[in-house]
Design goal:
single chain, alpha+beta, two-stranded antiparallel sheet, globular
């Protein structure tokens, strides 16, 4: 019976378990009844672990409530919208990634650095292989992918269940987070976690059509 390909253990890599997610927005309903993302000025946390969310609520305000999201895994979790825009954290070595990505209902269709794109191609019933091509957006002269910045941190005040992941598609995070991350890590000793302060900040930018808030 065919199954997954046998991969040498040394090539499988490793990753830390994920305790939960950090969000910079909420889903709100429009007048037409559709849901759309709306930014907030404080942190929102979600996790399958109720105790972790209760600890965060006790530390940073807000209420631990059930959270159900069909696209999440697992679908039924817990969340808190805190009243703070700053939290002390530990940075994880190699805990930052920035990619151009194209997503569809079935998942990530492309992951690109602006030069080379990785596209999943099906090998058999169980396995996919990432095949590299020149950037498709550059070839077509149309940007179809959006930046995805992911930051993994540890929250020392909460019981340790793994890393917390912040993900954003904002351009400012794409420009600024990598430089700040590299600077902080450079100040610490190689291979050690570095303590930092994670904050969310609302900004305004003048444009020809008025102020843009982000």
């Amino acid at each position: 019976m065919a199954g997954r390909q046998i991969v040498p253990l040394m090539e499988m890599g490793s990753r830390a378990p994920e305790a939960g997610r950090i969000h910079l927005g909420v889903q709100t309903k429009t007048k037409s009844g559709k849901m759309r993302p709306t930014s907030i000025d404080t942190f929102r946390f979600t996790s399958p672990d109720r105790q972790s969310i209760e600890q965060l609520a006790a530390l940073y305000g807000g209420e631990c409530v059930p959270w159900n999201e069909p696209k999440a895994s697992p679908k039924s979790q817990w969340q808190v919208i805190t009243t703070t825009n700053e939290i002390p954290v530990f940075l994880v070595p190699d805990g930052l990634s920035v990619w151009y990505e194209l997503w569809a209902g079935s998942g990530c269709q492309r992951r690109c650095d602006g030069v080379t794109v990785s596209v999943p191609e099906k090998l058999n019933e169980y396995d996919y292989e990432l095949v590299e091509h020149p950037c498709i957006c550059v070839h077509n002269q149309v940007r179809e992918c959006d930046p995805h910045t992911r930051l993994q941190i540890i929250i020392p005040q909460v019981k340790f269940r793994g890393v917390w992941r912040l993900e954003t598609k904002g351009w400012n995070a794409t420009y600024e987070l990598p430089g700040m991350f590299d600077l902080i890590v450079a100040l610490g000793q190689r291979g050690q976690m570095v303590q930092a302060l994670l904050g969310v900040e609302r900004r305004e930018q003048p444009t020809v059509v008025g102020k843009r808030s982000f």
